[in-house]
UniProtKB/TrEMBL annotation:
Transmembrane segments: none annotated. It catalyses: 3-methyl-2-oxobutanoate + acetyl-CoA + H2O = (2S)-2-isopropylmalate + CoA + H(+); acetyl-CoA + 2-oxoglutarate + H2O = (2R)-homocitrate + CoA + H(+). The keyword NADP does not apply. InterPro entries: 2-IPM_HCS-like (IPR050073), 2-isopropylmalate_synth_dimer (IPR013709), AIPM/Hcit_synth_CS (IPR002034), Aldolase_TIM (IPR013785), LeuA/HCS_post-cat (IPR054691), LeuA_allosteric_dom_sf (IPR036230), LeuA_bact_synth (IPR005671), PYR_CT (IPR000891). This is 2-isopropylmalate synthase. Its EC number is 2.3.3.13.
Length: 539
């Protein structure tokens, strides 16, 4: 795919797998990144920033695998981030070379505060590095993106100089990062206008923006940039990313879709043009959001725009009255437009495989026969305990049953918990180890979850600290499925796990085991001898 610089639509550059993965605890393994990349391709993003190839062997493998398997001809551009150094650019080039449409994204800070305290370099040195490293990246690929990091806090005159140099050295996309989320929309508009006025040779270059959400202005700033001539936006699913995250893909795309007549004039086309402003298949948004939330363990807040559980819910009488009379009184978009079906049929314990499969297809899940069977038997188990199964329940089941399993990991075989106000909470748990030993231990704790976790810790002896534990009810009612999300910290890294069950203590056990398995997998990849010790010291 070649994107014309003068495009009159918005190029969606998705950085869920790079900046999104920088969210503490959102670490993904190669299989998980690949699953998200496939879904991003289905969603229709133009560019997938698959990772930072030089950061770790795991990230290199992820970028390479995504380049090979998702970066097919006519598919998305596959990109790797690289610092402005030869080693980083070489790693990026080696990883993206397998894609039909490879891109290297190189960056260097340009603000005085970064130059003085982080890079410890002069402006002249940074200019020289930008020139040399963009040209170096260009020696590997035609498609080179350049970012002057902390652009919004950079002296504009110096910023223009760096951009001129990057373009002259062969950059095909110039990305303007608001790295610390400091800009207001008006300032963003002025920043982009200034760049377009003062930097020459923009004719063959795509102008891009990358907005962080520190002040909650990421989406507003990205839209302000689009109103001023930017044609690529960098964003992430659910807005995840470093610190407070990035502009949310779903917010930008739906703003452009719902307010098309407002945005059309900025794109040199008739105000009433019906042509979409992005290539995104909006019906895939909800499914993509669920997948990213499940695999990263980053829950979507209920009131999150577009994809939050309450985004299409109406609680108060006056609103419900309006909706019943005429939907548009209180809804500016249809739930179906992001892939949430309106027509919710009720499934229960008497439902068969056909109805189950059909409902899942309506929800956007295309399962293999094996996954369908697994999900169906779990559905029957849960339906025995619940009167009605909602779409949310179905999604939780499918997420649980189809999540990518960590190979040769610890598996829970059986859990039994005793608790109450006149007994010590105790848990007995049977686990299959990576070496296929079946081990049973019992433990007491301050509560049932503590007892389960103490028991698991006796078997899986990987030092970690539980830094987050949360339970979310998937639907209302006493028989609701509960989803438990945990985050466990090992040294500097955080690993998340999620699981759902009608019994939240059981969900808690599976969620914790999921997080430990990811940690175990990470140790296997980065410290094989340490992980082997953990696998064999269980008793
Ligand atoms: C705004 C952003 O999101 S930028 C992307 C952030 N992403 C990441 O950092 C990915 C994960 N990072 C990592 O795995 C590691 O930091 C690595 C592999 C990239 C580098 O690791 P290390 O070599 O150990 O360096 P460390 O992280 O301690 O420090 C960063 C170094 O890069 C330098 N640096 C930072 N940005 C750049 C740049 N754009 N170009 C060149 N050098 C840079 C810093 O000055 C520092 O150099 P110094 O050690 O000479 O002072
Ligand atoms: C690498 C750049 C685009 C970035 O993530 C930032 O500046 O926030």
């Amino acid at each position: 795919m070649s994107i014309q610089p003068q495009t009159d639509r918005v190029i969606i550059f998705d950085t869920t797998l790079r900046d999104g993965e920088q969210s503490p605890g959102a670490t993904l393994n190669v299989e998980e990144k690949l699953a998200i990349a496939h879904q991003l391709a289905l969603l229709g993003v133009d560019v997938i920033e698959a990772g930072f190839a030089a950061a770790s062997p795991g990230d290199f493998a992820a970028v390479k695998t995504i380049a090979q398997e998702v970066g097919v001809s006519g598919g998305p551009i596959i990109c790797s981030l690289a610092r402005a150094t030869r080693q980083d650019i070489q790693a990026a080039a080696q990883a993206v070379q397998y894609a039909a449409h490879p891109r290297i994204h190189t960056m260097i800070s340009t603000s005085d505060i970064h130059l003085k305290y982080q890079l410890r370099k002069s402006r002249e040195e940074v200019l020289a590095i930008a020139k040399e490293m963009v040209a170096y990246a260009k020696s590997f690929v035609d498609d080179v993106e350049f970012s002057p990091m902390d652009a919004s806090r950079t002296d504009p005159e110096f910023l223009y100089q760096v951009l001129e140099v990057a373009i002259a050295s062969g950059a095909t996309t110039i990305n303007i990062p608001d790295t610390v989320g400091y800009c207001t929309p008006k300032e963003m508009a002025m920043l982009i206008q200034g760049i377009r006025e003062h930097v020459s040779n923009f004719d063959n270059v795509i102008l891009s923006v990358h907005t962080q959400n520190d002040l909650g202005l990421a989406t507003a700033n990205a839209l302000a940039a689009l109103e001023n001539g930017v044609r690529q936006v960098e964003c992430t699913i659910n807005g995840i990313g470093e610190r407070a995250g990035n502009a949310a893909l779903e917010e930008i795309v739906m703003a452009l879709q719902v307010r098309k007549p407002y945005f059309n004039p900025y794109f040199n086309r008739p105000v009433d043009s019906e042509a979409p402003l992005t290539n995104i298949k909006t019906q895939e948004i909800y499914k993509t959001s669920c997948l990213v939330s499940q695999l990263t363990g980053m829950q979507v807040q209920a009131n999150k725009a577009i994809v939050g559980a309450n985004a299409f819910a109406h609680e108060s009488g006056i609103h419900q009255d309006g909706i019943l009379k005429h939907r548009q009184t209180y809804e500016i978009m249809e739930a179906a437009s992001i892939g949430l079906p309106e027509n919710r049929i009720v499934l229960g314990k008497h439902s068969g495989r056909n109805a189950f499969r059909t409902r899942l297809q309506e929800l956007g899940f295309q399962l293999s026969e094996a996954d369908l069977n697994k999900a169906f038997s779990r559905f029957k188990e849960v339906a025995d305990k619940k009167k009605e199964m909602s779409d949310w329940d179905l999604e939780a089941i499918v997420r649980d049953e189809t999540q990518i399993q960590v190979e040769n990991a610890f598996q829970i075989e059986h859990i039994q918990v005793i608790c109450g106000d006149s007994t010590y909470p105790s848990a007995t748990i049977t686990v299959v180890t990576p070496e296929r030993q079946i081990l049973t231990v019992a433990s007491v704790g301050t509560g049932p979850v503590d007892a389960v976790y103490q028991a698991i810790n006796q078997l899986v002896k990987i030092p970690n600290q539980l830094i987050e534990f949360s339970v979310q009810s998937v639907t209302g009612g006493i028989d609701a499925l509960g989803t438990v999300t945990v985050r466990a910290q090992h040294q500097e890294r955080i690993f998340s796990g999620q699981a759902s069950d009608t019994d939240i203590v059981v969900a808690a056990a599976y969620a914790y085991m999921n997080a430990l398995n990811r940690l175990y997998r990470y140790l296997q990849q980065s410290e094989p001898t340490v992980s082997a010790d953990f696998a064999t010291t269980v008793h």
